[in-house]
Amino acid sequence: MKPFFRGPRDQAVSPSLLTLSQLHPEILARKRVVLGNVMIFHGTPVRPAVARVGAQFCCPAEVRQPRSLGLVPKFCCTGGVRPAEAARVGTQVLLHDRLGYWAARLTPWRTHTGNEISTWNSNSLGLISAHSLRSKSSDSLSKLPFHSLKIITIFSAVAEGEKMKAVVITTTGGPEVLQLQEVEDPQVKDDEVLIKIEAAAINRADTLQRMGLHPPPKGTPPYPGLECSGIVEQVGKNVTRWKVGDQVCALLHGGGYAEKVAVAEAQVLPIPAGISLKDAASFPEVACTVWSTVFMMSHLSAGETFLIHGGSSGIGTFAIQIAKFYGIRVFVTAGSEEKLAFCKDLGADVCINYKTEDFVARVKEETGGKGVDVILDNMGGPYFQRNLDSLNFDGRLCIIGLQGGPMAQIKLSSLIARRLTVQAAGLRVRTPENKAIIVSEVEKNVWPAIAEGKVKPVVFKHFHLSEAADAHQLLESSQHIGKILLLP
């Protein structure tokens, strides 16, 4: 007999005759076998047209009257192929013995332990409710009365241990500690969606996590990656907005450097009009960071002046565009003429080379000695007093990074005399509820600007997941402009 069964990444199995009692010890013990690929008709194996759990199944041609079997029509056909409702455990079990056909439409369960097997017997007929066939032990199946069964069709049952690839931080250190490894698929909670990732973006926070300085929040994926785009592959039972097949991008707690990620429904955004699925990965983190700090906290508004340090970064290139959309005069600092020229093309009004100019003096010169209204700073300590000296009366300094160091010495009188406000914020450490508010505000206030073509993605280079170390080296070299993306 030719091999008829193949589980994901597993070798084929070809027993001469298979019943469920044989199926369990021989196949189910293989941790990644998908039972939804197997059908047995009078002891003869039947191979479904598409071997994917919950996506396709094929009934034997002899099953012609689904109503008499108690089956919902979409779950039974005459030799054809139909999509199943969901890839869940124990959706259908069809049993046959000498007296005819019996079927059970079972309630899907999401058990992870998978040892629950129940039986019901009437006139020596066994009806098996397989709530979960994820058991590693054969005991729970081997003791059941399978001898009277002639046909068993399992429509949807998932074995334990589906795998994906993700970038793992093997130890704290440099980019070389990033390694692509096989890991367990994410578990999807009731209020989450599972995204098959098309692209993920690199952020400075990822490098800090790699060095052990920015750990992921408790209960979140250990892999780096704070934003992604992709296609919804599964939805939790409480999810109402999204459905399987939707193209989306998302703000993540972590886990973006992978083939799949589970994320709360409220942190998922539609792909902006006119933007490719791949490029959409460049928006969630920068948009949520800039909008939540500069606009929601510092209340930057039309007619004001705004200084962005690191204008050619992912944050900077986005901040320039969204500020110009809202009628703000934009100042930027960058370290090369090439980067300054790029910022100018994006709409920056005043471009300052911090390596050759004193940004405080230039800001004062360009504002008639007043200073700017808001500063977005990623340097921290070394720039702190100089930023205060660059602010106008009632100016707001918003600190989102400490690339220059965490320590500073300041003159408090400069705060008092000009009524200055110092703010600081991180995005990853915010609560899910707070992130949901930010994501909602971004969709309302930023997505229209993207749809109008006023804010465009700035993507410098793409890397494969296996090249994550190279991507981190490029980011830390500061030789890029805009965002760097990882592709599975």
Unreliable runs, pLDDT <50, ≥5 residues?
Answer: 1-160
Q: Could you tell me the strand content as a percent range?
A: 25-35%
The description of the largest β-sheet is: 7 strands, mixed
CATH homologous superfamily placement of the largest domain: Medium-chain alcohol dehydrogenases, catalytic domain
Ends apart, CA distance between termini: 37 Å
Structural class, judged by helices and strands?
alpha/beta
Helix % is 10-25%
Tally of helical runs: 13
Number of strands: 24
How many domains is the backbone divided into? 3
The CATH architecture of the largest domain would be Alpha-Beta Complex
Compute the gyration radius: what is it?
29 Å
CATH class of the largest domain: Alpha Beta
Shape: globular
Features:
alpha/beta; Quinone Oxidoreductase, Chain A, domain 1; Rossmann fold; 3 domains; seven-stranded mixed β-sheet; 13 helices; 22% helix; Enoyl reductase (ER) domain-containing protein; oxidoreductase activity, acting on NAD(P)H
